[in-house]
């Protein structure tokens, strides 16, 4: 791994973001709209329910964490799409740049852009709706890390799909978080789900995170076993997604997709 | 030391097969230091496929490509460290400025004293005025000069040019030919150049390889090759070969 080459991939994304309000604003705007919408909904539920204040940390906190995962994934895929849209693969991969360095550059970009979004969400949720992060305790940090790693895995996997299927497969990538949301129990406990959905939920790291967070808010201990399972799973997903990307890249080099990448040229 | 004696670009038995199509058929050639070799042929003859295999973005079915003595398949980083390319179909990202693009590719090639190198190239290719202009806003000729400046960033010993003067005016094309001749004279680089402009090929190239159906049909000095085959111009020879290729089964 060459740090200068990874930096080059990140620098390209930085230049794009710096020079383009249309790229910069979505880092904040959608997550802030979500926080406002769900913030008021949480306050309303708190006012009509005997559970009172639990709705803000349980519901708004869940929205915040789920949005964060989505932002991480989109941070990686958006960085990748910039090279799809500008047909930059030939320029990049006809250089000494390794594909692993390229993926590392996408991930670092995803880290940067998602942290910007997270900061905006955290501040707004705290200032406008009084979301207290003390309710989650120290477990918040490792849980965020799990979501972060899983978000990166989804981003790398989504990028691999588009590399294999072509730019027109972009529409497959955007709904991935929405498809996963019912299974990972963002807003309800795992036990609500039918058994077949529970089986799927158990192989998705975020479901352990959200289940554990609800337990902690309800006064329970930090479930270390859940944390360990979720961490191991998230790392395994990330490793698997990188493996898939490398395999797809190899196929693209063998078939010539890298050299002639465009919506029309790729089937 | 042994690597320095080898040709900077050495292609051996290069073959690319897609299902039932043989795009490149057992190609063997070398380009020596300070030599400009023209790779000619009809559309679909296998020129770009060959260049893509040399650049390591397309895997050959068989055969080898060595750049500066390093096998592209086995030692890609060292093989491509002193290689670069410019192609009409691979413009630099239009949403970045000229300087930003050069900086990014300079980092990828680990160019020492990068900012000085960029300033020198901007001056050499008369791009100072456009340094902070987004590449997408430049004319075709200006974009070609930016691509050439990018191609020179790492002081390449092997330069691959895929139709670098396509779709630009004759005056700008003449300027680009001048840049390439200066490069081979000053840096003694090896250049592989594809073009459909026979006048340009005669003017610039020391040697040509005429491809058809993935094979080299003819090769030699573009100034003497037509006469050796009974034609007055390279274009007449090319058209004849093209007709024969079209009639071939």
Mean pLDDT of chain A: 87
Q: Identify low-pLDDT runs of chain B.
A: none
Instruction: Output the radius of gyration of chain A.
Output: 20 Å
CATH architecture of the domain at 2-82 and 156-247 in chain B: 3-Layer(aba) Sandwich
**Widest sheet of chain B: strand order?**
6-7-8-3-9-10
Helices of chain B, by number, come to 10
What portion of the residues of chain A fall into strands of 2 or more residues? under 5%
Shape category of chain A:
globular
**Could you tell me the number of beta strands of chain B?**
10
Mean pLDDT, all residues of chain B: 89
What characteristic shape of chain B results from the CA principal axes? Answer: globular
Terminal-residue CA separation of chain B: 47 Å
Which protein chains are joined by the largest interface, and how many residues does each one contribute? A-B, 31 and 32 residues
Structural class of chain B: alpha/beta
Write up what this structure looks like.
The complex is a heterodimer of chains A (267) and B (249). Chain A is mostly helical. Chain A has one domain (3-255). Chain A has twelve helices and no strands. In chain A, helix 1 packs across helix 6, helix 3 (26-48) runs antiparallel to helix 4 (55-85) and helix 4 packs parallel to helix 7 (140-165). The two termini of chain A are 32 Å apart. Helices cover 39% and strands 25% of the residues of chain B. The longest helix of chain B has 18 residues, at 170-187. By secondary structure, chain B is α/β, with parallel strands linked by helices. In chain B, helix 4 crosses helix 5 and helix 5 (114-124) packs across helix 6. The N and C termini of chain B lie far apart (47 Å). In chain B, the strands form two sheets. Chain B has a six-stranded mixed beta sheet, with helices on both faces. A four-stranded antiparallel beta sheet of chain B has the order 2-1-4-5. Chain B has a domain at 2-82 and 156-247: P-loop containing nucleotide triphosphate hydrolases (Rossmann fold), CATH 3.40.50.300. Classes of the chains: A mainly alpha (267), B alpha/beta (249).
